[in-house]
Amino acid sequence: MRITLLFATLLSLNTFAGIEYRRMAPQFHLISTEKQANIKSSEAVYIFKIMHVTDDIASVGIRYSIDGIESKANLKDYTFEVKTTPGKHKFQIYINSNYQEIYSDSMSIDGGTKNSYNVYARGNFKIITIDKPVIYLYPEVEQDVEVKVNPVGELSFTYPKYNEGWTVSATPDGTIKHEGNEYNYLFWESKQLTNVGAFAENGGHVVEKSNVLTFLENKLNEAGFTSTEKADFITYWAPRMIEFDKVFIEFIQNSNCDQFATLGISPVPDHTNRFYMSWAKYNGEMVAQPQEIQKMDRSGFDVLEWGGQQLILENNSETL
Fold first, then answer.
1. Bridge partners for 256 per DSSP
2. Which run of H or of E encompasses 21?
3. Residue 223: which H helix or E strand, with range?
4. What is the value of pTM for the model shown?
């Protein structure tokens, strides 16, 4: 199980991009204590109801541990029970990667007793800035191009100014002309709720500080970045990454980038290549697994978009 320190504090609700999220959530709240004739004096029963979760986990299998011994349980109407002995017990509950693990202090129970608890789940979602997605346009001939970005969250900054889209003139060398000015790319950023619990599930790379530059150069060469695009990417990300002794890097390409935004481009390019990078300070828990970099097809009317996000995996007050 992934270990995440939780704090039991008061519940408060906020809204971001139309989504309600909780700043901090309490963990275990005792609802009732009942003596039960059908429970022996040498036995005790805990009833746990999982609160603040989505409807799809009303009846799913979950993992839990009692006093460090792991087990499994099936939820029924978000609820499961644990039969044990009288005394003090500590619990740990893991739902899935969308939620942080839930830990209890020592909870006392008497023999022949059923204690019922509401257990408040805390989502693994945090508000993360999708940093510097930039869009390069390489038509085969100079032509007008319309570009629309539909982010999962809210656009927080664009350059040039985004008026329900960009309508620009693009040239084969990548120059973008807009309202009398020239640009190398179109820039946007967005604040989004991100499931940090899913980070590194699809593999990735542990990279030491001294190897960051070489590693990025090699991976961008594999993908097919030009020297200019590569320099733009590395000079943006590397200074932030080398602040840490080690980082964990996960690459996301093409249709998998729809989790951040979808693009609408007219006329439709021959190839729209998308390359994102999620990364975080290495905490010793992520497991490195090779990721195959897909070579981009840059022929015809070619579009490249790259961007990424730095994930802060420590506790954060902005959670779903």
1. none
2. strand 19-22
3. helix 212-223
4. 0.68
